[in-house]
Amino acid sequence: MIELLQNIPLFFIATTAVLSLLVGSFLNVVIYRLPVMMERDWQMQCNELNGIENTDTDVAAFTLSQPRSICPHCQHAITALENIPIISYLFLGGKCRDCRATISVRYPIIEALTGLLSAVVAYHFGFGWPCLGALLLTWALIALTFIDVDHQLLPDSLTLPLLWLGISFNLFNQFTTLEVSVIGAIAGYLSLWSVYQVFKLVTGKEGMGFGDFKLLAALGAWLGWSYLPAILLLSSLVGAVVGISLILFRRHQSDIPIPFGPYLAAAGWIALIWGESINMAYFNWAGFA
Question: What Cα–Cα distance (Å) separates residue 88 from each residue in 4, 81, 119?
Fold first, then answer.
């Protein structure tokens, strides 16, 4: 099997895409459950500090694996056959088998997105350790993107392991050298932290969350400091265009914060795949090449 994956690129790409659909199904669980788990943990800690006894509901097991997934409308337990990525959604017509309540189309979209981006990674890197690292980074960025969209939250339980994982891969020079990786992590964090402090000093408001600093630090740890300008430029441009569009066309209130994490994640993934070409084009345009 390993020889087939190494010697037949199309087989490797197809296998990666199919397996990544299963990963996408798991990412749906992470995106929904991880913020709930964090909120329950915070509530339990607050109760303890205030001398309030936690109820049975507070301490009931709620993890990424327990309890089983159910329909939120009729409590029907989702079977394995009803949980096949994309296929089950299409077969059920996008509705619960028992109560026929509508299932959000976002679930198959995330599964398809995970499969598609993973296939691009497999095509770009080919069989090897860099591809495995790039896949792990891609999956984490997808989870972080949708959690931030839903809750304006970038959990430390994802961003910090992602940062250390990037440094660990670069111990063996998989994407860049260890020195460049560490400098990238430091520069990534300090760059947005500095912007945050200046914005707060000038306006008295917080312009972004600390999770954004950690996410950019993680991207710097994976790709190195030289990719940070491209990531910041891409994320800022896309964020500005989307933010202005939301305010103008969807009457989004200007005082309601717009999460920056999804734009950082998208820019980071683009830099992962095409960052070298982007940097070369920029240096040529600036006359440095």
Answer: 29, 7, 21
For the cut 80, the answer to whether the pLDDT of residue 159 exceeds it is yes
| Cβ-based burial of 69 (10 A; exposed 0-12, middle 13-18, buried ≥19) | middle
Helix (H, G, I), strand (E, B) or coil at 261: helix
DSSP designation for 101: P
**pLDDT digits 0-9 by tens, 31-59:** 999 999 999 888 888 988 888 888 767 67
Six-digit token string for 131 = 């591809």
Question: CA-to-CA distance for 248 and 254, rounded, in angstroms?
Answer: 10
Q: What are phi and psi of 160, to 5 degrees?
A: -70, -45
User: What's the rounded Cα separation, in Å, for the pair 120 and 109?
Assistant: 16
Strand partners, 95: 102
Residue with tokens 């079977």: 79
**CA-to-CA distance for 246 and 243, rounded, in angstroms?**
5
Omega cis (within 30) before 85 = no
Name the percent of the chain in helix, strand, coil, to the closest 5. 70, 0, 25
Residue 209 has pLDDT above 90, yes or no: no
Q: Where would I find the beta strands (DSSP E) of 7-90? A: none
The number of angstroms, rounded, from the C-alpha of 182 to the middle of its chain's C-alpha atoms is 21
Q: Is the pTM of this model over 0.85?
A: yes
CA distance 244 to 258: 10
Q: What is the reported pLDDT for 252?
A: 52
The per-residue pLDDT for range 120-151, each reduced to its tens digit, is 999 999 999 999 999 999 999 999 999 999 99
Q: Which residues does residue 102 pair with via DSSP β-bridges, in sequence order?
A: 95
Q: Please return the burial class of 231, using the count of CB atoms within 10 Å of its CB with bins 0-12, 13-18 and 19+.
A: buried
Burial of 13 (0-12, 13-18, 19+ CB in 10 A): buried
121 within 8 A of 94, measured Cβ to Cβ: no
